[in-house]
Design goal:
The complex is a heterodimer of chains A (169) and B (486). In chain A, helix 1 packs antiparallel against helix 2 and helix 2 runs antiparallel to helix 3. Chain A is mainly α. Helices cover 76% and strands 0% of the residues of chain A. Chain B has 486 residues and is mainly α. Chain B is built from 21 helices and 2 strands. The longest helix of chain B has 32 residues. Chain B has one domain. Classes of the chains: A mainly alpha (169), B mainly alpha (486). The interface between A and B is medium-sized, with 22 and 38 residues.
């Protein structure tokens, strides 16, 4: 029961914040509503016992990516520009509504048809499912090589950025 | 679960070559802490030594089949031979780069570091036994190549090439990722062995999700090897990128892409080859036709070689479409022969070009013979080889590819291949004609061949002829290129 209440409340806030992201005129407010949305999703992940994903959601999305968004908005100083102008994408609104409704119908169809096939009473999760410990152990044992390959990839990206942008050689 | 945090020596040996190459790249970056004069001079030597050292683990593992890191990577005859092809590509790239990057004012140690990083990614692609490794190694090589294409960052053409390659390449990576996700949905695993098991035992073969995933993976990798209809980026990127980088990626990225295509499709999707063989048939035919026909109309040698590289991707695809052991061996032989003839041709382009990427019109090759007889003769050899005329490696390569296709009863594809080869003779011969039978421009000075560039030319020309006259040894080696069935 507690889960249901958490889901309904958080879901409502997440949907409201999501609508606010597209509706408000000030891009900075828009970005802040997106943060609210991300936090709600993070708590929903917690409810689903996906602790690690919840932590990532806060760290990566609400933390790093949103800061990047805000940086770009403030650096380009578009906040003032957008408030005075009319929406350049007005002509696409009808299309957006149609596609959005289509997506909603698809998700509902999957949910309705899938609900019948779910096992009644629900299964039991294995011990420490989705915990950071388990993910860490997997990452450093079975997936240690891809993990290291990613570190090389990031090093290359960093060297590449320096090579392409450093002014004097 | 196995909680081992320390890699074992046996695991490291499987990915020994790429580890050594990547370590050499990092050493070059570290060496920049020394005075610029020393680090610049040391970079090509560190790179060459690293590539040479990568042969040690290759000879140690030989053609034995080993897996490592919980089945993430695998080494077998095919992987080792592809890695050898890539290491030689790297050595020759260094050979013609030293002169070029000094002339174009690009002489920075990061150039060699990025080339080595790209090679380590390419080698890893040949060893990937899991789709996550295919994706990561593809990104390692792609990001290095995006940066290298824009290395001449003061030139708008180079910037444009880099941006174009980056945008379209990211798009292709998205296709690959989506394909991997769909395959996971269909087979429940992304390890190549696991997918093959799922197809064989659980009847996933008829799952449309799995087939769609396989198709999207083919699109992502087809972009890297410049197969039609995913070739749009090739001419612009090849023309705009620094010539030495273009040469490197025209061989290296192609070899890596084909290595991954062959391993993924022959192991994971080996049991559903009736489903993908017709698709590859069509792509191979289209690639050969479009590449060769459009190349005829080109007046710039870099663009002509770009379309020629598309056409050659088509011939290699013929070997892959055959989907048999002869096809895999032919693919390895083709890439080995292509490496020498194509890198050689690009070395001549670098030699004949002038500062600022000038002198790449085919007309500026008028009378090259009178300005530098050696380079003109070598270019003649490379053009004959690329056209597939005997007695060069190009002829033998096409011969093996076509005979593999005949074994698989693909007569139509062989006919298309032979006809398009005839078309290609026209544009390759045109270069030869202007070099030998026209007079040079009155103000054209003789070109001197010096140092490593000359050595590179001699090696590539000799190897091209050697592979045409005595192909037996390499063919025997290529016969060992077996892809381990999981």
């Amino acid at each position: 029961m507690g889960e249901l209440i958490a889901f309904v409340v958080l879901g409502a806030i997440a949907v409201a914040a999501g609508i606010a992201v597209v509706v408000v005129r000030n891009p900075v407010h828009s970005a802040l509503f997106l943060v609210v949305n991300f936090f709600c999703l993070a708590v929903l992940f917690l409810v689903l016992s996906a602790e690690f994903v919840a932590a990532l959601q806060v760290l990566v999305y609400a933390g790093a990516i949103m800061v990047l968004f805000l940086f770009v908005i403030m650096l380009l100083n578009v906040a003032g520009v957008f408030e005075s102008q009319r929406d350049p994408l007005r002509s696409q609104r009808g299309l957006a509504v149609c596609l959005g409704l289509g997506l909603l119908a698809e998700v509902l169809a999957i949910a309705v048809s899938g609900a019948a096939r779910l096992p009644s009473g629900g299964g039991t999760l294995p011990q420490d499912f989705g915990s950071p410990t388990l993910v860490g152990l997997l990452l450093y044992s079975q997936y240690v090589f891809p993990f290291e390959a990613v570190s090389v990839l990031l090093l290359i990206a960093m060297v590449g950025v320096v090579v392409l942008t450093k002014r004097s050689v | 679960m196995n909680h081992s945090f320390v890699p074992k020596a046996a695991d490291m040996l499987v990915v020994g070559p790429e580890t050594i190459v990547a370590a050499a790249a990092m050493l070059i970056l570290l060496a920049e802490l020394m005075p610029a004069r020393i680090s610049k001079a040391a970079a090509p030597w560190i790179a060459a030594l690293g590539l040479l050292a990568s042969f040690i683990p290759m000879t140690t593992t030989g053609i034995s089949v080993r897996t490592g890191f919980s089945g993430m990577v695998v080494t077998d005859g095919f992987a080792v031979l592809m890695k050898a092809v890539l290491a030689v590509t790297g050595l020759l790239t260094i050979g013609f780069s030293t002169h070029y990057i000094k002339r174009e004012d690009l002489d920075r140690a990061e150039y060699y570091a990025l080339v080595l990083f790209a090679i380590s990614g390419m080698m890893l692609m040949a060893s990937s036994a899991n789709l996550i490794m295919v994706f990561l190694s593809l990104e390692i090589l792609s990001i290095s190549l995006y940066v290298l294409s824009g290395f001449a960052r003061t030139q708008p053409r180079s910037q444009e090439a880099s941006l174009k390659y980056f945008l379209l390449g990211s798009f292709a990576s998205a296709f690959l990722l989506y394909g991997i996700a769909l395959v996971y949905g269909g087979a429940g695993t992304i390890s190549l062995a696991g997918i093959a098991n799922a197809i064989a035992s659980e009847g996933a073969a008829r799952n449309p999700v799995l087939l769609a995933g396989a198709g999207l993976i083919a699109v992502g990798l087809g972009f890297k090897v410049a197969a039609v209809p995913f070739q749009m980026w090739t001419p612009d990127v090849y023309e705009g990128a620094p010539s030495s980088v273009t040469a490197f990626m025209s061989v290296g990225a192609k070899a890596a892409g084909f290595a991954a295509l062959a391993r993924v499709f022959l192991t994971a999707f080996g049991d559903i080859k009736v489903d993908w063989m017709p698709a590859l048939w069509a792509v191979a035919a289209l690639t050969m036709i479009v590449g060769n026909v459009v190349a005829v109309a080109q007046t710039d040698i870099k663009r002509m070689l770009a379309y020629s590289s598309i056409a050659h991707a088509g011939y290699i695809l013929v070997g892959l479409a055959a989907a048999n052991q002869a096809g895999v061996s032919a693919l390895v032989f083709y890439l080995a022969a292509y490496l020498f003839m194509n890198l050689g041709a690009w070395a001549v382009v670098i030699l004949a070009g002038r500062r600022g990427e000038a002198g790449t019109e085919i007309d500026s090759y008028n009378g090259l013979f009178w300005r530098n007889p050696g380079a003109a003769a070598a270019m003649g050899v490379f053009m004959f080889a690329l056209a597939g005329l005997p007695p060069t490696g190009g002829f033998m390569a096409k011969f093996y590819v076509f005979s593999a296709a005949l074994q698989a009863n693909m007569v139509g594809l062989v006919v298309i291949g032979a006809l398009t080869s005839l078309v290609s003779v026209y544009y390759y011969a045109r270069v030869t004609v202007v070099m030998f039978m026209r007079d040079p421009e009155p103000d054209a000075a003789p070109i001197s061949t010096r140092g490593l560039l000359g050595v590179t030319l001699a090696v590539t020309a000799a190897a091209t002829i050697y592979l045409g006259v005595l192909p037996g040894q390499l063919f025997q080696l290529a016969g060992l290129a077996q892809i381990a069935r999981p």
